[in-house]
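Renewal narrative, Specific Aim 1. Our central claim is that a sequence can be written position by position from structural information alone. The example that follows is taken directly from our test logs and has not been curated for this report. It begins with the structure tokens describing the chain, in the order in which they were read.
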């Protein structure tokens, strides 16, 4: 049985990008272990990863802005602003793009928190211990304390 040749770095990058959007830093981290090729003497030589990423950006195949949009769309219904912002920083998204996304995140944070709370609990806490448990859960999802208090307060009014 013949062994298939290893895909080139560009092929690997395109395979990753075909599945979902990546930030430049995230894709670079995934490709870095493969960023060497064998020369005619079977010695590993480094490949210019930055040049490849620049080319992908120039062609419009790699975009940090699209990665942010996809991340917001996927995470917004389940997580708060703090957690989503943290995740964007981990993925290497620039502070400028994060700042642009913050107004939309903050505008919909209360309704997202209500949805998460309703799916998980649905009933108001009966005692301080239960209230603390519900608050910890919402905090772990990245919602701010003022939003959590509003959720627990307005849920009482709605019922």
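The sequence written for that structure reads:
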């Amino acid at each position: 049985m013949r062994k298939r040749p290893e895909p080139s770095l560009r092929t690997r990058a395109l395979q990753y990008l075909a599945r979902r959007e990546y930030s430049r830093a995230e894709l670079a981290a995934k490709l870095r272990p493969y960023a060497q090729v064998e020369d005619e003497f079977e010695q590993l030589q480094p490949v210019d990863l930055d040049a490849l990423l620049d080319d992908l950006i120039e062609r419009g195949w790699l975009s940090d802005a699209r990665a942010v949009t996809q991340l917001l769309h996927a995470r917004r219904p389940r997580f708060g602003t703090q957690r989503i912002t943290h995740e964007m920083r981990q993925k290497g998204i620039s502070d400028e793009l994060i700042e642009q996304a913050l107004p939309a995140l903050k505008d919909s944070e209360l309704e997202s928190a209500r949805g998460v709370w309703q799916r998980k609990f649905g009933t108001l806490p009966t005692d301080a211990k239960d209230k603390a448990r519900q608050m910890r859960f919402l905090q772990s999802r990245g919602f701010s304390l003022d939003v959590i208090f509003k959720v627990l307060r307005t849920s009482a009014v709605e019922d």
